[in-house]
Amino acid sequence: MDFSSSIRIVSPAEFDQQTAQTPGSERRAAIAPALGIVSAIWGGLFVVAPGSRTGIHHHGEQETIAYVLSGICEIRWGNTGESVARATAGDFIHVPALLPHMEINPSNTEPFRWVVVRSTSTPIVVNLPNDTWP
């Protein structure tokens, strides 16, 4: 067994806001190469302000798993945004690779916050034109 590795604690003040972004949201990297952490996966925090929505985007070949820490989120996805689901605190979300989607915060008072884990060490964010969906 190799015990030369060590556990790393990353506090919110250390989160990297220079990670890939989508309009209408803020991603903060917690487990990423930019923070000197070598890992096969990426982890961070995702926040959407009250009454805001993200642009339409996908994450290339990455799969995403998210845990809703707080708030309410509506997620639209599909070729035309035809599918909709709502997630609340305590829910897990799985976003398949290459799936166009958008997150919407229906609350006018509370942000929603997710803990996000991606299947590669560096997040992939492909922002699509706003007119992608009717």
Structural class: mainly beta
Helix content: under 10%
Mean pLDDT: 94
Order of helices and strands: EEEEEEEEEE
Tertiary shape? globular
Strand adjacency order, main sheet: 1-2-9-4-7
What is the number of E strands?
Answer: 10
Main sheet overview: 5 strands, antiparallel
Give the structure's gist in a few sentences.
By secondary structure, the protein is mostly beta strands.
Characterize the structure shown:
This protein has no helices and ten strands. The protein has strands at 26-31, 42-48, 57-58, 64-70, 72-77, 83-88, 92-95, 101-104, 112-118, 126-127. It is mainly beta and 134 residues long. The chain is globular.
List keywords for this structure.
single chain, 134 residues, three-stranded antiparallel β-sheet, 10 strands
Secondary-structure blueprint:
Elements: E1 26-31, E2 42-48, E3 57-58, E4 64-70, E5 72-77, E6 83-88, E7 92-95, E8 101-104, E9 112-118, E10 126-127
Antiparallel strand pairs: 1-2, 2-9, 3-10, 4-7, 4-9, 5-6, 5-8
